[in-house]
Specification:
The complex is a heterotrimer of chains A (297), B (628) and C (255). Chain A is 70% helix and 3% strand. With 297 residues, chain A is mainly alpha-helical. Chain A folds into two domains: 167 residues, no CATH class; 71 residues, no CATH class. In chain A, α1 runs parallel beside α8. The radius of gyration of chain A is 25 Å and the shape is globular. The mean pLDDT of chain A is 89. The N and C termini of chain B lie far apart (60 Å). Chain B has 628 residues and is of the alpha/beta class. In chain B, α5 runs parallel beside α6 and α15 crosses α16. The longest helix of chain B is centred in the middle third of the chain and has 19 residues. Chain C has 255 residues and is mostly helical. Chain C folds into two domains: 55 residues; 197 residues, Arp2/3 complex 21 kDa subunit ARPC3, CATH 1.10.1760.20. Chain C contains twelve helices and no strands. The C terminus of chain C is likely disordered. Classes of the chains: A mainly alpha (297), B alpha/beta (628), C mainly alpha (255). The interface between A and C is large, with 74 and 77 residues.
Chain lengths: 297, 628, 255
């Protein structure tokens, strides 16, 4: 389950294409059936990556957002012809309920997509891509990312040791606690700024600023990536064409139309699902190879 | 060929009255391993940074610095950056990016190298340093020693011909320091890289260095071989110089001094008969020197002549055919040398010498009085602690008693949980099982403030104790917290006592390592503790500051405060502790008075005890005596 | 494929992609779906800042300074985790970065904070929004008070911080608000959406006000001290590259 296996073996630019497409269609296609199917596809991908562990750890906030959107939308939006009932003098319309549900499905799908993004698009891969567009900003992000764990450890040490002096966030009135917290952060700040002068020296000592930089991280764009990218483009093209011709979204306002899918909708759905699931092919292929090489283990 | 030539280099910082360097003239030969010695503030760092143009400080410079016979300022930027590599003191602060692999590549990226060239160098360097398993790790997860190795490797990626190291070992534990030193030695031997290294504890360096340059207040006061350095230190009888020698050398010199005084008392001591011819000759030389001034004008090494070749001594090496028992005898200073003629720089050299061996047999170190069975102050009963559910337990049912008036040195490997134990004893963390009792009362029952003022805790990094903009504010805060009637007076008295009066207005970051340590000590003492827990108080502190700290600790102890210090510094412990304990796998496995403790150990012991280990008949009974 | 890739500068791809997405978002908007337009605009808004940052050679100290500010801002919420939710000094640190180091650096600190904190907390659709919101907080802080000492006093900063407490939340909720606004075509519905987040934003604003009132003067002093320390790069040697470098350093300091 490490890098170089199945989905994880894909070139970062292909992954970027996958997620850009996934997010775009998750927003363009506005039909609860399509969106929930897309969500299911994302779940399958997550299941293949880590058995859904990461998704489960995020499921509670996701569910919260989902429910909140469904509940809130009818309260805010009163458009729509079909009034279900009145809460006081607020009309709750069927349209706004369905709209809220669709919106919530879209969000759920997006958030689920991002769960696999966190697994697949590692910091390393992201910064590799980012560095091609903006090398300096990427270096900056990398430096900050390198500092964070160190500063976190220091801040925790500071919090521990300063307990002995009564400068703690667990003691005193709220104002006192906030003051203490900021004092700790301030101490960390001046300490880090002091130390970072050495970091800058270390950069210059190793020739930073003597000319154009190159970039070390390398990902090979192989045939596997080319095939995947081609497939993704094809599926996206089909889905996009159908969408442009008016398929793949539900007309809710002013009056809710039928949920039933037209041929075009089905086509868009199929293309969308193919787009989301296609990279899994590599996962299956690599698993089969793995099994046949390891006698079904 | 000289790789570096300094001609009358004088340097002054913008607002400084005294120049940081004055008239330094020296030349460093290609392939040399040079040690820069000298107290803090003697200009070592300034000199190194002047050799590394990219990080040279601002100020006025006169004189010439030639790098490979070219003026250093006339080098093109890229060539200059790659020809000279620099590794600094703090391992963490030199890491720029997030993962080890990227850190190693950082320098090469700056040079715009092709990806294939980078991969190749990476493969080579990772192989040489054994870094392959670490490449994908976040550099933050590494130990201090590993971090410093990564720093060294990433500097070497640029293939420098001159490697500068500014106290690279100061923040490392002894084991990691020795490992890094071994690597430097290998680089010097196998790759022929010229190494210039500053360090205030140079005892481990002397045996492997080719040359020592000592700076004092900005001037080069010595330039010669390590052995000549040891001789010069002895001749000067300056404690600052003597402190910088390896313990074994110091001991041998002191032993020689003692021999002289014994000899004046009784014409021939009993053990003189066993002396080898060579040692006898050194005794004779001593006799000739007897009563004469310590400063001998006919001294062959003049510090003012740095170019003086020390090598002529070497050809004399295969002398003394009448000494078959010491074939690997290292080179000696010349016969007319009025110094002790035998100067061992390592335990091995010392042991090879029968005179020393015999002297060792007779010179049983004075035993300190054993720890009294005073009443228990702090008791740890069955302490069990793990940082989280899934990580292995750090402490596993630890039992330990700290008695009133103890001065305990707590030893243990890296990551053995010494710091964790101290934090538990200080009441900063709660054990998952077991309890800590202060005079019979459970720590968790004591009100927080009483707990933290009765038990003073000094973290490994003293900076953790300061959160205000000046030392005074921090001290005032501490004094008013314990309810002092007039905090300002109290702070003034404390500052006087610890010699911090002149520093009160400074920002804690502007203090030196030793001063920060004393500042943190002052903070703890303001709470009038009964017990002080110190975590590695001597880390990164120079010999002089260490001495000052020891003096203050001794005074604090006399005033009735019990001391517990976790340390790697065996020498410090052997001088100042009256009880030693060893933490291993979450338990105290050895606990006893220092002499017995050190005599029973080969690793957690002083070089001197290592030397004496074989001289004394190793009674197995001693091991039993160590247990409590 | 490889040949193709080598010939295309990825930076040039940004323009056609941006145009395509703008068209997409617009068409989508005409069909009553406003989900895409916000995120497209937010991403586009970052391009000029990043481009400006790329344009000139950056001193090591400049990068390190921004990285430290962003890293400290990222970890600064740790001590407050046990306090009130949303009561953190992150925005406060970003604002002060803008005030002391200028608008451009302020934007960078804010955006990098948004990006890097999500490396550790988990990326999501909110990442670009947070980058944008904090980036703008830093940027406007620089415009507001970097060159104008009278605005560095407590009262103006307090008002500025309070405003950003609300603005930040509003920016993060733009997608929903825009969606509702486009559908309902009324401002009251937008206000209704925003009023739901009001308690959170009030806590955020209160945090900003608290930190700015209590700590702004001392922190500004501290950061000014380091701005000088980082900027005062007077190299002794006259290597041309270095002279240029220190000139850059000076300019950074002056900005």
């Amino acid at each position: 389950m490490s890098e170089g296996f199945g989905l994880r073996s894909l070139h970062p630019s292909v992954l970027l294409l996958y997620y850009a497409g996934g997010i775009t269609f998750g927003m363009l296609l506005f039909h609860p059936v399509l969106l929930l199917s897309g969500w299911a596809a994302c779940l399958i991908v997550n299941g293949h990556l880590d058995g859904g562990r990461e998704w489960r750890s995020w499921s509670l906030p996701m569910l919260g957002a989902f429910v909140a959107l469904i509940l809130v939308n009818p309260l805010i939006s009163h458009r729509g012809r079909t009034v279900l009932y009145y809460m006081g003098d607020i009309p709750i319309t069927l349209e706004s309920v369905v709209y809220g549900a669709t919106m919530a499905s879209s969000l759920l799908g997006l958030l689920t997509l991002f769960v696999s993004y966190r697994i697949l698009m590692t910091e390393h891969k992201f910064l590799f891509l980012f560095a091609r567009f903006s090398p300096k900003a990427a270096l900056l992000a990398m430096m900050a990312a390198g500092m964070v764990p160190r500063l976190r450890r220091r801040l925790k040490e500071l919090m521990l040791v300063q307990k002995t002096r009564g400068i703690a966030v667990s003691e005193g009135t709220v104002t006192q606690r906030a003051r203490n917290g900021a004092r700790l952060v301030g101490a960390l700040l001046s300490w880090s700024l002091e130390d970072a002068l050495q970091t800058a020296d270390s950069m210059q000592a190793r020739g930073y600023g003597t000319g154009t930089r190159s970039s070390y991280p390398a990902f090979r764009f192989g045939p596997r990536d080319a095939w995947t990218a081609g497939g993704l483009f094809a599926a996206a093209g089909i889905a996009f064409t159908l969408w442009a011709n008016g398929h793949g979204y539900l007309t809710i306002y002013p009056r809710l139309e039928s949920f039933s899918l037209s041929k075009g909708d089905v086509g868009a759905l199929a293309a969308y699902l193919v787009f989301l699931l296609m990279p899994l092919g590599w996962e299956w292929r690599d698993r089969t190879t793995w099994r046949s090489l390891n006698f079904g283990k | 060929m000289a790789i570096v030539e300094l001609r009358q280099v004088t340097f002054r910082y913008p607002d400084a009255e005294e120049p940081a360097l004055s008239g330094v003239t020296a030349s460093i030969l290609e392939g040399d391993f040079v040690v820069l010695a000298g107290p803090s503030g003697s200009g070592k760092s300034t000199l190194l940074r002047l050799l590394k143009r990219e990080v040279s400080p601002g100020g006025t410079l006169s004189g010439t610095i030639l790098l490979e016979r070219r003026k250093i300022e006339s080098w093109p930027a890229r060539e200059a950056a790659s020809a000279v590599g620099l590794v600094m003191q703090h391992p963490e602060n030199q890491l720029v990016v997030d993962t080890v692999e990227h850190e190693l590549a950082f320098g090469m990226e700056n040079f715009g190298l092709e990806r294939s060239a980078m991969r190749r160098r990476m493969a080579e360097m990772a192989g040489f340093f054994g870094l392959e398993p670490l490449l994908a790790r976040r550099s933050d997860e590494l130990s201090g020693g590993q971090k410093q190795t990564v720093n060294l490797a990433s500097v070497l990626m640029l293939q420098p011909r001159l490697l500068l190291l500014d106290e690279p070992l100061a923040q490392l534990d002894p084991l990691a320091a020795r490992e890094l030193l071994g690597m430097l030695k290998r680089l010097n031997d196998e790759w022929g890289i010229t190494v210039v290294m500053s360090e205030h504890r140079i005892d481990d360096l002397l045996p492997i260095a080719d040359r020592v340059i000592r700076l004092e207040r900005g001037s080069a006061v010595f330039d010669g071989t390590p052995r000549a350095y040891a001789a010069e230190a002895w001749r000067r009888q300056d404690p600052a110089w003597i402190e910088s020698l390896p313990a074994v050398t110091r001991w041998a010199l002191e032993e020689a001094g003692r021999a002289t005084s014994i000899r004046t008392a009784q014409e021939k001591p009993a053990w003189m008969g066993t002396l080898s011819g060579e040692a006898r000759r050194f005794m004779d030389a001593e006799r000739r020197n007897d009563g004469g001034p310590t400063e001998e004008p006919e001294e062959p090494e003049e510090p003012e002549e740095p170019e003086e070749p020390e090598e002529p001594e070497e050809p004399e090496e295969p002398e003394e055919p009448e000494e078959p028992e010491e074939p690997e005898e290292p080179e000696e200073p010349e016969e007319p040398e009025p110094m002790p003629s035998f100067l061992p720089l390592s335990v091995k050299e010392a042991r090879a010498h029968p005179a020393i061996r015999d002297a060792a047999a007779h010179a049983a170190p004075a035993a300190k009085p054993p720890a009294s069975e005073a009443k228990p102050l702090l008791q740890a009963n069955g302490l069990f602690f793990a940082y989280d559910k899934n990580s292995p337990a750090v402490l596993r049912g630890l039992e330990w008693t700290v008695r009133q008036g103890d001065r305990i040195a707590l030893f243990g490997g890296n990551g053995s949980g010494k710091s964790t134990l101290l934090q538990l004893l200080a009441g900063l963390r709660e054990p998952q099982r077991g309890e800590v009792r202060l005079e019979g009362v459970k720590l968790s029952r004591l009100p927080t403030q009483a707990r933290f003022s009765r038990i003073g805790y000094l973290a490994q990094n003293p900076l953790l104790h300061f959160v205000h903009d000046t030392l005074r504010e921090d001290l005032l805060h501490a004094a008013s917290r314990v309810g002092s009637p007039s905090p300002a007076d109290e702070v003034g008295r404390m500052a006087d006592r610890l010699g911090l009066s002149g520093l009160l207005g400074l920002h804690p970051h502007d203090l030196s390592g030793g001063e920060r340590q004393l500042g943190a000590l002052a903070l703890a003492l303001l709470g009038r503790p009964q017990l002080l827990l110190l975590d590695e108080p001597t880390k990164g502190v120079d010999a002089l500051a260490k001495k000052r700290l020891a003096g203050h600790l001794e005074e604090v102890h006399r005033a009735g405060v019990t001391l517990v210090m976790a340390t790697h510094d065996v020498e410090f412990a052997s001088r100042y502790a009256n009880r030693c304990s060893l933490l291993f796998q979450g338990e105290i496995v050895a606990d006893g008075e220092p002499e017995a403790f050190f005599r029973g150990n080969l690793f957690y012991t002083t070089p001197l005890h290592r030397l004496l280990h074989h001289a004394h008949d190793p009674k197995p009974a001693e091991e039993g005596a160590v247990q409590r | 494929m490889n040949l193709l890739r080598r010939k295309i500068n990825p930076k040039l791809l940004v323009i056609p992609i941006a145009i395509i997405y703008l068209v997409l978002a617009y068409v989508s908007l005409t069909r009553g779906n406003a989900l895409l337009i916000g995120i497209v605009l937010v991403l586009l808004s970052m391009i000029p800042f990043v481009w400006r940052f790329e344009r000139r050679q950056r001193q090591a100290r400049e990068l390190v300074l921004i990285a430290v500010m962003a890293a400290v801002a990222t970890v600064s919420r740790i001590p407050f985790a046990a306090l009130l939710p949303n009561f953190t000094p992150v925005t406060f640190i970003v604002i002060l970065s803008g005030v002391v180091f200028g608008a451009e650096a302020g934007w960078m600190v804010g955006a990098v904070t948004g990006l890097v904190s999500n490396f550790f907390l988990g990326q999501g659709p909110w990442t670009p929004w947070q980058m944008f919101a904090w980036g703008m907080a830093g940027f406007t802080a620089g415009l507001f008070a970097h060159r104008n000492p009278s605005r560095r006093r407590r009262l103006p900063l307090l008002l500025f911080g309070a405003a950003w407490g609300y603005l930040y939340g509003w920016i993060l909720n733009v997608t929903v608000a825009l969606d509702v606004g486009v559908r309902e075509q009324t401002w009251s519905s937008v206000l209704a959406v925003y009023s739901l987040g009001l308690p959170f934003e009030t806590v955020h604003a209160a945090a900003n006000v608290f930190f700015l009132v209590v700590f702004a003067p001392s922190w500004i002093k501290l950061l000014e001290r380091y701005r000088r320390k980082y900027g005062a790069l007077q190299r002794t040697d006259s290597g041309s590259a270095d002279m240029e470098g220190s000139a850059h350093g000076q300019r950074t300091a002056a900005e």
